[in-house]
Amino acid sequence: MRWWSSPLALAASLAAFVAPTLAEPVLQTHSLNSCLKDSGFSASKFIVRFTPNNGTAYFDIQAVSSVSGHVKFDVLVTAYGYELLRQVVDPCDTGLVGLCPMTSGKIPLEFNLPVTGDVVSQIPSIAYNFPDIDAKARVLINLTETGESVACVEADISNGKTVDLIGVKWATAIVACLALVSSAFISGLGHQNAAAHVAANALSLFGYFQAQAMIGLTGVPLPPVVMAWTQDFQWSMGIIHLEFMQDAITWYQRATGGAPALLLDSLSQVSVQVEKRAVDVAAAGMNLARRHLAPLVPRAVAGPVAALAKRANIQTEFGSYIVYGIQRVAFKAGIESTNLFMTGLVFFCLLVVITSAAVAAWKGFCEVAVRKHWMAHDRFLEFRNGWLTILKGILFRLTLIGFPQMSILCLWEFTQKDSPALVVLAVFFLLGMTATLAWAAYKVILIARRSILMHHNPAYILFSDPQALNKWGFLYVQFRATAYYFILPTLGYLFVKAMFIAFAQHSGTVQAVGFLIVEAAALISASVLRPWMDKKTNSFNIAICAMNFINSIFLMIFTEVFNQPPLVTGVVGLVLWIANAIFALILLLMLIVSTIFVFFRENPDGRYQIMADDRTSFMKSQTHLTATTELDALAATARGDKYGKGGLDLDDDAESITSDSLRRQTDPSYGHQHLGVPSASASVATFANARSPSPASPAMPLFPADGPRSPPRYNDRPASPFGASYRPQSPYGGGGGGYGASQPPASPYGSPPGSNNNPYGGAFRAQNNSSPWQRGAGYEH
Q: Which domains does the chain have, with CATH numbers?
């Protein structure tokens, strides 16, 4: 075994488990590319297949030559930059018509060429078994008389084995989706802590898959194994090939004034090279194409090809076409580049529709199951009572999952302009999704600041109110309560990466530098702030950030800015594939094991440590204190909630980005003008100076005494410190802890606090010296 093959032995053994086994070993190529300026030989179709078992090579070539005379072929075969084979071939010795002597003009060739045994023995066996081998054959055409090189052609060699496998795509997709569904099911059973951990890990894993797909979408020249590996995760960006869908998208594009690309339909007439060279070389080929494309490309193909040449990532060189970046991914997925945006958009919309239908169907099934006594009446009770709010939260979560995908595709569509209708859709979805997530992040920050102002703890309202938790929890439940704001840098991180991918397709170096800076910032922020909910989740996400940063370093190496030997580039590509394959397998196993344990443990929440923000106490306290309407009212008042027709609504669920809530929150005089109550600016100071240090006054018992009392007059009600809406007077507003009241207000439930008529007065408080609303919620100390 040669020296260079031993470092690949481990990788080859790993590849044996994932690469398909062919009936016989084969080396083949499907494209021929010029490697010499003003080359006198080119081919629009070039198919060569070598089978060592029978010692023959099959050729099918449609070539154009400007060389005349006797020539010799200097053949060089390399793998990962290392020379495997070098041989000089005289076409006159093989009796090839049209090549001995070579004549100018079109040269159609189709023949079988015998290969001697000594040549076959020089090719190592690993070349037939290693997936996505980075091998190429270069042929210099030299004049026999002078030895002058008049043409140079180059072909990439493949052995038909790859790590781009449909099984890997299905396995990763099923595990990620089942983990998300499992977290929702576990949450419905009431195990909020376990559900939050499973959902957080599933979302992080899904984000890692999208980061892998983003590497493939860059315009950086990638080794074949890296291209194939990243292609396994393009499903996470909605890049999935369905033939009937492609036909419908092509029709829609034509109907809206676009010109669909037809590159995949022209493969029998043109040669397509999946780019592995620097983009500046491809640009040089474009200059040559402008002079030579017209006489070389058939008229039937010239129209679609000319349209393709105007697009961002396909360059023309002597009738062959180079695809790179986003169009490289589309070509390898069997999708026309002009259909790529609509493909991702359609799959995102299908995901939203199918998920909404599934949630509605589950709601209907639960109601039928309860009526038929198939299921206990209290099972999934929270979901059945507030399923619409939960559905809103699920749709927000899907928007967050699809944000990287749609940001990249929408921004890229702005550079392509496939049709006016597609550009309008890109604008609508990009602005809509960005505004939706920005509004949701704003609401989370508003709720957290309100909780801090009222309770000195952001977790109190964020986790005690089911409306806020079910609707906005997707943005903050994976973080600790004090890091509720971290969703903003997360969204910024995703959007910046999307801009680099979409707008810098022509410059792989710019993309690589941008990725390096962004991933370094993400790793430093995650390591210093550690914003996730607990130590294990922080470790899980920091490991993902570290792997993304390492991948960005590899991406910089692939740009060849360091002028490293080709062997180094090939080895780095193998390291990227092996390292990420092992890392992804570990993450998948961790997620699978944790999900299985949750289902088979009697108390899934007990497997996870109690979070430092004490969110579990708030959630359980809220759950147990909703037995009666009266207790609901008391809990709402103690937390400072609105309580009316809509029930508990701490997060202003009725408000939206299109309502006048923004004006109520930004205009201090709006509450006075339209609600007849004092403005927020006039009451904040009073509220801040006089509010109680706890959600409820320690002087009040849990259940007020009965007895008729007059309800408080409207003028006696304190102004809301937020100016957003009116809140009723708290029955706990005693003299020492009311919302700014100097005198104890009249209680609508019975005797005032401290009166002799109160049977629960001093004795109850003597035994319970802390408020029942505070016990178990982190207020004892």
A: 27-157 (2.70.220.10), 174-234+341-607 (no CATH), 660-781 (no CATH)
